[in-house]
Design brief:
The structure holds 2 protein chains of 2 kinds. Chain A is of the alpha/beta class. Chain A contains 9 helices and 10 strands. Chain B has 8 helices and no strands. Chain B is flat and about 75 Å long. The chains are: A alpha/beta, B mainly alpha.
C-alpha cells in the first residue's frame, strides 16, 4: 500500500532522514520506536507531506506522491494524522471538530455528517462530551476526539505521531485502548510511540530508528526479545 | 461672564444632530473599509511573494510616518490635481474632484487599514502552528486552512484592539473639518464664530463626542469579556 524508497530529508545542513526504506501493507500496524531526534516524527510527517522530502520516493498505491502539486489535498484526505498535541480546533466543540472536514471538503450533508460524527465519538467513548469545547476536555479526551476527527475522513492509513506523549500517565490507557480497537478492525496504522507495551501487543512490525536511519525492523517478539543490532539493544535496555 | 447653554443647545443642538449622522456614516464606512484593507495588507505581508510583502511594508512605513491630516489633504487636494495633470499630458482635459466625505473614508481606510493590518498580522502569527497542520492533514488547502482555521481566531483575538481603533476613528473624524466635511467640529466652529458662544458651543461639542465614544468603549469592553468567557 505504501512504499518508501531511499527517503532523505535535510533541514538546511542537518540531515534528519538518511536513505530510509520502508513498506506498509494494507491492514498492517507498523510501530516506529527510537530515541528522541532519531527522525521518527519527521518520517511520519514526510508520509503525509507536512514535510517535503529532500530525496527519494514515497509510493502510495503505486504512485509517487512527492510531486503531487495541488492534488496533495486529495492524497491527504486518505491519510489521517493524529498529533502529539491533539491540535483540535479550539473554537469548535468536539462534534464540530469531527464533522467539519467531511462537511466542508466532502460536501456531506450536515445531518449525515452529524450522525457519523456521533457514531465516531461513541466509538472513542465520548458521545456524552459531544458538545464540550476542547478547553473543557482532558488531554486524553482531546486526543480521542482527534482520532475521531481523523477517522471522519475515512482514511486508508492513519498516522500517529507520539499520540500519548503529552498525556498524564493515567489518561494514556484510554487512548491506547481506542488505537488497539482500530488495529483490530484492520485499520492500516503507522505509529510513532514510546509506549513499548503497545508496540509489543499491537504491532505487526516494529521499526527501530536512530540517527536518521532505520537500524532494525522485524516482528515485535524478535525486536524486543532478541534484537540483532547493538544500538537497538542499548536503546531497549534503557526503556524497558 | 454669562453663559447661555440653553440657547446653544436649542440652536446648535439640531445642527450637531445632523453632524452625528455624517460622523457615524464616515466612521462605520471608514472602519469596515479599513478592516477589509487591513486583512488584505496582512495577507500580502505574510505571503511568500517577497516583492509584494516589501512594497506593503514600505506603504505601512509611509502611512505611519506621516500625520493622518496630511494624508487627508493629500487625498483631497494632491491626488485629483496629479490625476488631472497626468491626464492633460495624455491629451484629456479633465476636472476630477473627489467628494470630501469620500476622501475621508478613503483616508481612514488606508491609514487605519495599515495600523490594523499589523494587529491582524501579529494575531495570525500568534495562532498555534498546530492548527495549520491539523487543517492540512485533513485535506484542506493552504488557502482554506487560512480561511477556516487561522483568520477566525486571529480576528477574534484582535477584537479588543479593533474596539480601541473604532473609538479613535470617531474622534479623528473631527480632522475632516479641515477638508470641509460638514461634521461636528466644522458646524461648531461656524456656529461659535457667528454667535460668539464659544464656551457653550465647544463644551457641547465635547459632550457630543463623549456621548458617542463612551458607549462604544463600553460595548467593546462587554464584547471583550464575552469573548473571554467563550471557549
Amino acid at each position: 500500500m505504501l512504499q518508501i524508497k531511499n527517503l532523505s530529508k535535510c533541514f538546511e545542513d542537518l540531515e534528519v532522514l538518511k536513505d530510509v526504506n520502508l513498506s506498509v501493507a494494507k491492514g498492517e500496524v507498523v510501530v516506529i520506536i527510537g530515541p528522541s531526534g532519531s527522525g521518527k516524527s519527521t518520517l511520519l510527517r514526510c508520509v503525509n507531506l507536512l514535510e517535503t522530502p529532500t530525496g527519494g520516493e514515497i509510493l502510495y498505491q503505486g504512485e509517487d506522491i512527492t510531486h503531487l502539486g495541488k492534488k496533495v489535498t486529495d492524497y491527504r484526505k486518505q491519510v489521517g494524522m493524529v498529533f502529539q498535541r491533539f491540535n483540535l480546533f479550539p473554537l469548535k466543540n468536539a462534534l464540530e471538530n469531527v464533522m467539519y472536514a467531511p462537511v466542508k471538503l466532502n460536501k456531506i450533508p450536515v445531518k449525515d455528517a452529524k450522525e457519523q460524527a456521533m457514531d465516531l465519538l461513541k466509538k472513542v467513548g465520548l458521545e456524552n462530551r459531544a458538545h464540550a469545547y476542547p478547553s473543557a476536555l482532558s488531554g486524553g479526551q482531546q486526543q480521542r476526539v482527534a482520532i475521531a476527527r481523523a477517522l471522519a475522513m475515512k482514511p486508508e492509513i492513519l498516522l500517529f505521531d507520539e499520540p500519548t506523549s503529552a498525556l498524564d500517565p493515567e489518561l494514556v490507557g484510554d487512548v491506547l485502548e481506542v488505537m488497539k480497537q482500530l488495529a483490530k478492525e484492520g485499520m492500516t496504522m503507522i505509529v510513532v510511540t514510546h509506549e513499548m507495551g503497545f508496540a509489543k501487543d499491537v504491532a505487526d512490525r516494529v521499526i527501530f530508528m536512530d540517527g536518521g536511519f532505520v537500524i532494525e525492523e522485524g516482528a515485535p517478539q524478535d525486536i524486543f526479545k532478541s534484537p540483532k543490532n547493538e544500538r537497538t539493544r542499548t536503546f531497549l535496555s534503557r526503556v524497558l | 461672564m454669562e453663559l447661555n447653554f440653553g440657547k446653544a443647545i436649542n440652536t446648535l443642538g439640531p445642527s450637531l444632530l445632523g453632524g452625528v449622522g455624517i460622523v457615524l456614516y464616515i466612521t462605520l464606512s471608514g472602519f469596515f473599509c479599513a478592516l477589509a484593507a487591513a486583512l488584505m495588507i496582512a495577507m500580502g505581508r505574510l505571503s511568500k511573494n517577497k516583492v509584494l510583502s516589501r512594497i506593503l511594508s514600505v506603504l505601512i512605513e509611509l502611512i505611519r510616518g506621516t500625520p493622518l491630516l496630511v494624508q487627508l489633504f493629500y487625498i483631497y487636494y494632491v491626488i485629483p490635481t496629479l490625476l488631472n495633470g497626468i491626464l492633460s499630458m495624455a491629451g484629456y482635459e479633465t476636472n476630477i474632484q473627489l467628494k470630501a466625505s469620500t476622501c475621508g473614508i478613503i483616508g481612514f481606510a488606508v491609514n487605519y487599514g495599515c495600523y490594523m493590518s499589523e494587529v491582524i498580522r501579529s494575531a495570525i502569527l500568534a495562532v498555534d502552528s498546530g492548527q495549520r497542520e491539523a487543517g492540512l492533514a485533513l485535506g484542506f488547502s493552504e488557502a482554506k486552512v487560512m480561511l477556516h482555521f487561522i483568520i477566525p481566531p486571529a480576528l477574534r483575538n484582535s477584537v479588543p484592539v479593533f474596539g480601541n481603533y473604532l473609538v479613535m476613528l470617531i474622534k479623528d473624524t473631527s480632522l475632516l473639518a479641515m477638508i470641509s466635511v460638514q461634521e461636528l467640529l466644522l458646524r461648531t466652529k461656524t456656529y461659535a464664530s457667528q454667535t460668539f458662544l464659544t464656551v457653550e458651543a465647544y463644551t457641547l461639542l465635547a459632550v457630543v463626542y463623549l456621548l458617542l465614544s463612551i458607549p462604544l468603549s463600553q460595548m467593546t469592553g462587554i464584547l471583550e469579556r464575552r469573548l473571554k468567557r467563550m471557549p
